[in-house]
Amino acid sequence: MLRIPRTGAPQVALLAMLLAATPFGCHTTRGTSPRRSSRASVPRTARRVGHVNARAVDPARQRTIARAACDKKHAPSCFRLAVMLETGQGGRADKPRARRVYDKACGRGDPRGCYNLAVMLTRGQGGPKQAARAREVLDKTCRGGLARACSALGWMLFRGVGGPPDHAGARKQFQTACTGGEPESCADLALLCLMGHGGVQDHPRARRLYERACRANVSRGCLNLGLMHERGHGGAVDKFRARKLYHRACGLRDGDACYNLGTMWDLGRGGRFDRRRARILYQKACRLGDAQGCYTLGTIWRNGIAVPASGRNARKFYARACAIGHAGACYEAAHLWKSGRGGKADAGKARRMFQRACHAGHTGACVTGGILLEQGRGGVVNLKGARDLYKRACEAGNGHGCARLGLLWAAGRGGPRNLAKANELRTRACRQGWSLACGRP
């Protein structure tokens, strides 16, 4: 799923459709679409087909009736029985049996049974994972006319789940699902057209498909259409229209869209400039789980941008963004705990957060965290751990990390002594821009 990056080119976060799918007939609450990866979006929530109305008939009695009808080869009753077995309606839940009964319903021609069987096969519920068979079941169900099965099959083909990847086949399945009434699949097809996967790159068509998804209240359709209007992909730049699309997606509880709308108010793009309104939108984005929204709020409070500076609030929002997975937020929060700004200084917590930021890809955090480990600040001295963090920083192109790692090798601290390795790291640090390492013996 295309998302708007904070800087640079568009990023893609792909949907594991079947893994996140809700089976027909099972209770569900619609969630929001996360931003990255970790943040993949979820497919449209299933209709509650097969749900038993307990006020009309006692669920236990309903289960007995469904079992008797299923034994007489009535496919819808087999499906209804499987739902009850899976969800525990009218008796204890029994997923292995539910899987067998879904298989029976599928074999007797109920497409909902086939779809739910494929979900269980893919997730490994009620038995071992059987992705290849799930693919076969979905293919049969899609050809039988269930658009949602085409959509799920499209993502299995795209990602190579249960067989080799087939991007052209994925396009075909998304097209079938889109025309069959699955607006989420219109957005999926738009992504493939935008990126040129499985066929020609076609930005104007991607715009049209995102428009169709947006009209059906698919939030990422509105969000990504907004991006295309803002950047001029597939047509003219129209920042006013982009702002309106972000507004609509934000109203559909898309945290990315709220953040992007906030930046437009913050910078006066596509309309008026209003930092207070931008801050409100960043807050909404943060509440919806958008890490960048939380990070931006942390920076606003730390630097006092249109608000009185508050280290306490900066800590809170940086910590929230860090918990969601924002490496830069972990780094900034660690500095606040290290310095004691906004509350009590806590070198131990700072040390842990620097390490967390490092493992999430922030090279500066690797160096600072390594220094704390090397010096024993916030805990015991850990020279081996310091070497590991400096190595991470060095391999990612941070000259300071190479220089500090070289010093450990030269002194034999945290591992063996090796002057040749130390000199190699010093030279590398110099090449990577750490001037203090240049010209030293």
Name the shape in a single word.
globular
Q: What is the helix/strand order?
A: EEHHHHHHHHHHHHHHHHHHHHHH
What amount of the residues lies in strands?
A: under 5%
Overall residue-averaged pLDDT value: 88
The count of β-strands is: 2
Helix content percent band = 55-70%
Question: Helix segment count?
Answer: 22
| CATH topology value of the domain at 346-441 | Serine Threonine Protein Phosphatase 5, Tetratricopeptide repeat
How many angstroms separate the termini?
51 Å
CATH class of the domain at 346-441: Mainly Alpha
Main-sheet strand order equals 1-2
Question: What's the helix and strand layout?
Answer:
Elements lengths: L1 E2 L7 E2 L4 H4 L38 H13 L3 H13 L7 H13 L3 H13 L7 H13 L3 H13 L7 H13 L3 H13 L7 H13 L3 H13 L7 H13 L3 H13 L7 H13 L3 H13 L7 H14 L2 H13 L7 H13 L3 H13 L7 H13 L3 H13 L7 H13 L10
Antiparallel strand pairs: 1-2
Helix pairs in contact: 2-3, 3-4, 4-5, 5-6, 6-7, 7-8, 8-9, 9-10, 10-11, 11-12, 12-13, 13-14, 14-15, 15-16, 16-17, 17-18, 18-19, 19-20, 20-21, 21-22
Q: What is the compact description of this entry?
A:
The chain is mainly alpha-helical and 441 residues long.
